Amino acid sequence: MKKLLVLLFCFATTIFAQAVYESNETNSNTIGQAKAQSIFLSYEETPSKIYVGELFAIKVKAIIANDDFEEITNTFQDSQNIEIINPDAKWQWFSDNIFYNTFYMKANDINSKLPTLNLNIYKDSYKIDSGKLKGPTPNIIKLNETKYFSGVIAKSLKIKKNKTTHFDDKNFIVVLEIEAQQANLKDFSLKWVTRDGIDSSSSNLPYFKIFYYAIVPNYTKNFIFTYFNSVNNKFEKFSIPIVVTDDKISTQIDLNPAQSSLRIYKDGAYGFIGLILILLFIRRKKKAYIIFLIVLIGLFIYDKNPLNSVKIDKGSNIKILPTKKSTIFYTTQRTLYAQKLNERDNYIKILLPNGKIGWINDSKD
Predict the structure, then answer these.
(1) What is the pLDDT of residues 173-231, one digit of tens each?
(2) Which residues contact 61 (CB under 8 A, 6 or more apart)?
(3) DSSP assignment, residue 244?
(4) 339 and 310 Cβ atoms separated by less than 8 Å
(5) Domain extent listing, the chain
(6) Does domain 39-141 have CATH number 1.20.1420.30?
(7) How far is residue 294's CA from residue 166's CA, in Å, rounded to a whole number?
(8) Cβ atoms < 10 Å from Cβ of 237
(9) Which among 135, 136, 127 is positioned nearest to 38, based on CA atoms?
(10) What is the dihedral of CA 165, 170, 176, 182, to 10 degrees?
(11) Does the reported pTM lie above 0.70?
(12) How far is 97 from 38, CA to CA, in rounded Å?
C-alpha cells in the first residue's frame, strides 16, 4: 500500500509539472506572437510593370501598434540588380499609429528582383521590435533602343535652356539644362554624337535636373533626341535647332582669329605699310617716317593683343563649362599661352593653340 501511494504521488507530480510547462510554453508563444504583430507592413502603391532603367516609386504603409518607441529605421535585403535611390528616406507620421514612406528604385536588368523591406523601431538605442515586407514582383520590360534614344524614361521632361558654341574648328558643343519628373536623367547619353556627358546634376525627389553637354560636328543642323514617357507609354522627340552663340568670336569668320582670312589681310596691310615707310625713310631720310614705323609696330603688337594672353601651367585642367563640377575635357601637357576670350566669376574662357575653347579656374582651387 505504501509503495502504491508513492507511485501515485510521483505520477501526480509529473502530470502537474507537464501542465505547468505547457502553460508556460503557451503563454510564451502568445507573447511572442503579440510582439511579432506589433508592426504591420503593406504596400500602398506598387507598379504592375516597370522598364529597365526606369525610376519607379513604391509607397509603403506601416501600422506600429506600439507607442513606446523613439526611432524608426529600415534596411533592405535580397535585392538583385536594383538601385535604391533614397534608402534612408524618413518615415512620415500620418495619424494615430500609421506611418508612410516612399522609396524610389531603378531596375538595371530584366531579371531584377525587388528587395525585402526590414523595418525596426528603437528606444534608448535598443531595437525593441521589427517587421518584414517581401518585395513585389512586377513585370519588367526592356525597351528597344534607337539611334536618338537618350536612355531616359520619365513621367515628364522639358528643356529649360540650351546653348551652342564652337568647340573647335570642326565641332560645336551643345549644352542643355534639362528638368524631369521621376526620371533616370543621369543615364542621359546619345550614340550619334561625337562625345557627351553629364556636367552636373541635382535632385529634389521626384524631380531631377542635369546640365548635359554634347560635342557634335559643325554641320549639324538640329540636335535630336527622344525619351520614353512612362505616363503615355510612348517615345517623345525633341529637335532643337543649332544656333551658334559664341561670346567673343564672330561666327562669320574662322574659329581661330589667327587663321581667319580677315587676319591674313590685316597682317598683309601692316607689312605693306611698314615696307612703304622703310622705303620712304631710305629715300628722304626723314625721322617722321621712323616715328610712324614705330607707331605702326606698336599698333601691330597691340592688335595681336599679348596683354590678353593667359599663361597656362603644365597639368592645368580645361573644363567644358565655368563651374566647379564641370567635366574636364583636356589637361595641358606643358606650359603654354592661350588667348583670353571672356571671364565669369573665377573662370577664364580661353582659346588654346590647338583651336579648342574651354574654361580654366583662375583661383587655382
Answers:
(1) 999 999 999 999 999 999 999 989 888 889 999 999 999 999 999 999 999 999 999 99
(2) 41, 42, 43, 44, 98, 99, 100
(3) B
(4) yes
(5) 39-141, 149-241, 257-361
(6) no
(7) 37
(8) 10
(9) 127
(10) -170
(11) no
(12) 10
